[in-house]
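Hi support team,

I've been running sequence recovery on a batch of backbones for a student project. Most finish fine, but this one hangs at about 90% for roughly twenty minutes before it completes. I'm not sure whether the input is malformed or the queue is just slow. I've pasted the structure tokens below so you can try to reproduce it. Let me know if you need the job ID as well.

Thanks,
M.K.
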């Protein structure tokens, strides 16, 4: 019984370590993208399906300059570029993704960009 608890605790420590590394990767990516323009971050969590984190960078005119998506179940997920949305105005992208539940994180990031553009 003690061995089982020791192994279980070891897996917990590994999970915590890899979650820490993933958070460091997230912070580094956000810091790199923040200097490029207006940033919007969207998160969609799920217990059954994989979760998504979307980071969009827009210029002051609302055109998407860069998009990165982290999608997966585990702490091994990393950001990947989503080039198909680059160059599109955020209003056009919002109209396309508005009704899709799968794009909830994208919608959240687009709404953040929209709010920042309205303020500035």
């Amino acid at each position: 019984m003690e061995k089982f608890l020791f192994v279980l605790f070891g897996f917990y420590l590994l999970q915590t370590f890899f979650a820490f590394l993933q958070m460091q990767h997230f912070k580094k990516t956000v810091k790199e993208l923040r200097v490029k323009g207006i940033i919007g971050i969207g998160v969609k969590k799920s217990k059954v399906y994989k979760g998504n984190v979307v980071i969009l960078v827009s210029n002051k005119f609302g055109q998407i300059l860069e998009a990165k998506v982290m999608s997966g179940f585990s702490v091994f997920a990393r950001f990947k570029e989503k080039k198909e949305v680059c160059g599109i105005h955020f209003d056009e992208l919002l109209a396309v993704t508005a009704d899709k539940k799968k794009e909830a994180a994208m919608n959240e990031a687009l709404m953040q960009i929209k709010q920042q553009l309205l303020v500035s």
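--
Follow-up from support: It reproduced on our side and the slowdown came from queue contention, not your input. Residues 2-119 form a domain with the Sufe protein. Chain: A fold (CATH 3.90.1010). No action needed from you.
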